[in-house]
Amino acid sequence: MSDLFSSLQLGPYRVTNRIAMAPLTRSRAGQGGVPTELMAKYYAQRASAGLIVSEGTCISPQAVGYLDTPGIWNGAQMTGWARITQAVHELGGHIVCQLWHVGRISHPSMQPDGSLPVAPSAIAPAGEVRTAQGPQAFVKPRALDVAELPGLVKQYRVAAQNALASGFDGVEVHAANGYLLDEFLRDGSNRRTDAYGGSVTNRSRLLLEVLETVCTAVGADRVGVRLSPVQPVNDMRDFDPQGTFSQIVERLNDFGLAYLHVTNLGIETPGLAGPYFDPRSLRALWRGIYMTNHGYDRDAANAAVKTRAADLVAFGVPFIANPDLVARFKTGAPLNAADPSTFYGGAEKGYTDYPFMA
Ligand SMILES: Cc1cc2nc3c(=O)[nH]c(=O)nc-3n(C[C@H](O)[C@H](O)[C@H](O)COP(=O)(O)O)c2cc1C
After folding, report:
1. Is residue 3 a part of any domain in this protein?
2. H or E element: which one contains 162?
3. What is the pLDDT of residues 105-154, one digit of tens each?
4. Fewest C-beta atoms under 10 Å: which of 113, 173, 215, 285?
5. Beta carbon of 176 within 6 Å of any ligand 1 atom
6. Per-residue pLDDT tens for 339-352?
């Protein structure tokens, strides 16, 4: 019987355990979205994870919606990432790049030429965005023209190729948490009347086109995808999350992906993102490697792997505060507590200075 500490075949790679580091935006990239030496230290400290999923990494200037987040669209960014992937590999780890376009979760001050952020439909999310000038209300985004979508799909392909060229072991297509691809998937943010809106087939078209081209470019066994079926953050909802995401997962089965990553965020606030269902039930529909996430501790994660409710478990906040999370889980050592005030932005404090076990 497998447990959290069993190795796992993930696409072409044998990973040493089933403890993944969840994607974590930390807003410490340098000028122009270039990864820094400090980021290399941070990821290297966490290289004992079976798999590291990088922080959300912007595929284009238009994809940016948070301050000081890294990109993967130019050579300087790729050079920065190459330093990080090398450091992780030298320590025997594996790392994939989370490909991110924030869609409407941005602000003109972060967009090229001060343009409006883009989205499937011109619907402003409720809430505020953190800009260099402080918090500001979200603006009404510009609905993408259907003629722009092939170019957008191509940006995902180029970003995936750049990621592999930077030494990443693969990519995770970010289709969760209210960002661009998720905005297309759920009908609260997608009111389009063309081939990309309406039915689930239409709403999932952009994601499937992105996966098609990314899989062709880097190989499906190096591609994962992240979904968040009942997650309400960023003003997200769907009239039928169970129907929508069951159909999507069935379609994803056709690709032969490295893994499906489903975050359960929202199960503690049933109904906020639409009629409730338990997203963990999607596991039964999926014919590949399944990664679960959200609120797991060691014992719950171990139980999930032992009962085959998941093949691996991603940890977010526990990995922020515990670079040696795997060793702590193995020995049953207590965990450091995380300091949320240092999650986003800053330097070493709350980033690379969490202590290892004595
Ligand atoms: C500081 C912070 C940054 C995050 N950044 C991302 C991100 O870039 N991409 C993403 O898909 N999820 C992101 N998340 C969500 C985490 O990947 C994860 O789903 C969440 O922390 C729940 O897992 P946990 O209970 O183990 O912490 C972030 C969460 C936190 C706390």
Report:
1. no
2. helix 149-165
3. 999 999 999 999 999 999 999 999 999 999 999 999 999 999 999 999 99
4. 113
5. yes
6. 999 999 999 999 99
**Catalytic: which of 179, 259, 296, 354?**
179
Specify whether the CB–CB gap between 13 and 89 falls below 8 A. Answer: no
Q: Report the residue among 317, 342, 354 best suited for mutation to probe ligand 1: largest number of ligand atoms under 8 A from its CB.
A: 317
* Residue of 4, 18, 24 best suited for mutating to test ligand 1, as the one with most atoms within 8 Å of CB: 24
Taking a C-beta distance cutoff of 8 angstroms, is the pair 257, 223 a contact?
yes
pTM (predicted TM-score): 0.99
Domain assignment of residue 110, given as a range: 8-342
How far, rounded to the nearest angstrom, does the alpha carbon of residue 190 sit from its chain's CA centroid? 20
Nearest CA to ligand 1 atom 20: 316
In a domain, 309, yes or no: yes
Residue 358 pLDDT more than 90?
A: no
**Average predicted confidence (pLDDT) for the chain:** 98
Question: 226: Cβ below 6 Å to ligand 1?
Answer: yes
> Catalytic site residue 179?
yes
Q: Residue 206: inside a domain, yes or no?
A: yes
- The residue whose CA has the least distance to atom 16 of ligand 1 is 316
Ligand 1 proximity of 315 Cβ (cutoff 6 Å): yes
Nearest CA to ligand 1 atom 29: 24
Tell how far the Cα of 315 is from the centroid of ligand 1, in angstroms. Answer: 8
Are the CB atoms for 3 and 298 separated by under 8 Å?
no
Q: What is the amino acid identity at position 34? A: V
Q: Ligand 1 mean position to 227 CA, how many Å?
A: 12
Q: Residue 299: inside a domain, yes or no?
A: yes
Task: Render pLDDT for 219-270 as a digit per residue (tens, 0 to 9).
Answer: 999 999 999 999 999 999 999 999 999 999 999 999 999 999 999 999 999 9
Q: What is the pLDDT of residues 31-73, one digit of tens each?
A: 999 999 999 999 999 999 999 999 999 999 999 999 999 999 9
Name the DSSP letter for residue 229. T
Q: What is the CATH number of the domain that holds 112?
A: 3.20.20.70
Task: Tell me how many domains the chain contains.
Answer: 1
| Per-residue 3-state assignment (H helix, E strand, C coil) for 128-146 | EEEECCEEEECCCCEECCH
